[in-house]
Design brief:
Elements lengths: L3 E6 L2 E6 L10 H15 L5 E6 L10 H6 L4 H23 L5 E5 L3 E2 L3 H5 L3 E5 L3 E3 L2 H4 L11 H5 L1 H10 L3 E2 H6 L5 E3 L4 H13 L3 H11 L2 H22 L2 H14 L1
Parallel strand pairs: 2-3, 3-4, 4-6, 5-7, 6-9
Antiparallel strand pairs: 1-2, 7-8
Helix pairs in contact: 1-3, 3-11
InterPro entries: ClpP/crotonase-like_dom_sf, Enoyl-CoA_hydra/iso
Pfam family, one: ECH_1
Organism: Roseibium sediminicola
Amino acid sequence: MSFVETEYREGAVWLWLSRPDRHNALIPALIFDLRTALAEAAEKDPAALVLSGRGNSFSTGGDLGGFLDHARSQIELRAYADLLVGGLHDAILDLLAFPAPVMAAINGPVTGGSTGLMLAADMVAIADNAFVQPYYSEVGFGPDGGWTALLPDRIGTARALAIQYRNTRIGAAEAVEMGLAAGRGPAGELRGMIDGWVADLGKGFAQTHQATRQNIWDDLRREAVRRRLDQEKTRFLDLIGRQGTLEGMKDFTKQRA
């Protein structure tokens, strides 16, 4: 069974994160399925790529249960974190290099590293009841998924820092105001909103849209993002091995149980 479902709709390829019983929390198998689906979608020459999530959440970031299951030793935990965070960062870079416009339908909460999948999208539709939140300081993790590599360029350095220092929850209206999303509405209407955007793309030349995206996300810019993502992973791996972080994961899991 794949953790990512593919749907062809109105000329676009939709990829659905499909682990709804765990709020689409990220594990290496899901990331592997996502990267595989992205490679297959790129070969279809779609008008656009759309990411969304099954169930009530887009994704709640790295599955803490997965980290705790591999916490028998620091070596095992670091190896698991390297696989998960490294895979997520590769998926983000896959999205930045995708040959067609990338959109996201944020159907529910998006937290932790999964926010990077949203930050890699060109246009985002967010449900009125959805929110974005880091949670790193609540657990002791280093930020990953582009919270320091991509977010400051989107909303400004000071704002990006304040959100992470204070673990600020960004609601749908604020996400639109600060430029993280292009539109919002009831969760049931996100598909129609995205369909409208895809239809707008069809009014112009696909080759122009492709050239525009390739000019913006050129090799130089993507390499700069890669370096910052590598820096995020290095610091994530440093902090994941600390005893305080292990206790932070256990405490956070108890609070959410």
